């Protein structure tokens, strides 16, 4: 709408009464009762008729674990989609992701058995501070002696390793090159 010169006026600024639309509604007591009774419960709907309730529940939990696996790949393992051009590289990437997930689940089981809970995030972040380094010593003859050293774990890390029944290598082999 124009008023003489200048910019058009927005509809919100136009003069006149504003009507607020109303929507009629009413309570449906049967739906309210069902909602109250089912609060905190799962309802699984399926077309599979020959599975028991327990089998259906396990299949559903597996689906949620698959979703969790993708979230683990993105967050904890920092694995993101990579666009490969060759099929063998795609398959190799999938294989590496699968191995990472298997290792993650294995660490989760070890944590669970050790009484540390079933989520290994915190344990992994604590143990990630343990460092491995290669020491290279040159010799007069021109060869190098390489040895791998592992940092000494803190008291807390050592307790975690003991609970997980894992030991760090005490001595690594030396290689002459």
Protein traits:
three-stranded antiparallel β-sheet; elongated; 5 helices; mainly alpha; 2 domains; 3 strands; 177 residues
| pLDDT < 50 runs, ≥5 residues | none
**Total domain units:** 2
Whole-number mean pLDDT: 79
Q: Mind describing the biggest β-sheet?
A: 3 strands, antiparallel
Question: What structural class do the secondary elements suggest?
Answer: mainly alpha
Write the layout of secondary structure elements.
Blueprint: H1 29-37, H2 53-74, H3 87-113, H4 121-127, E1 132-138, E2 144-150, H5 155-163, E3 175-176
Antiparallel strand pairs: 1-2, 2-3
Please characterize this protein's 3D structure.
The protein is mainly alpha-helical. It folds into two domains: 44-128, no CATH class; 131-177, no CATH class. The chain is 42% helix and 9% strand. It has five helices and three strands, in the order H-H-H-H-E-E-H-E.
Explain briefly what this protein structure is.
The chain is mostly helical and about 180 residues long. About 40% of the residues lie in helices and about 10% in strands.
